[in-house]
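Example record for the data management plan.
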Amino acid sequence: MKKLIDSRQYKQALDLFDRQLQMSTNVTFTLALKACSQLNDHQWGVRIHEQLSLKSLKDPFLQTSLIHFY
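Corresponding structural encoding:
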């Protein structure tokens, strides 16, 4: 996912994130939020935020990524 974002393939990175949602980690959530920010895709970012709320992930990097997204 990081390679896709580094090469500015944000949509592909989010597609990969969706396919691997059950195995997502703090890092993949952070990367997905970065991709949403770059695409200005508010709807997808909100979906990711909802997933974070369901999983009760409270990592400082994730919280910072959410701030950058909004």
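Summary line stored alongside the record: The helical segments are 2-6, 10-19, 26-39, 42-55, 60-69.
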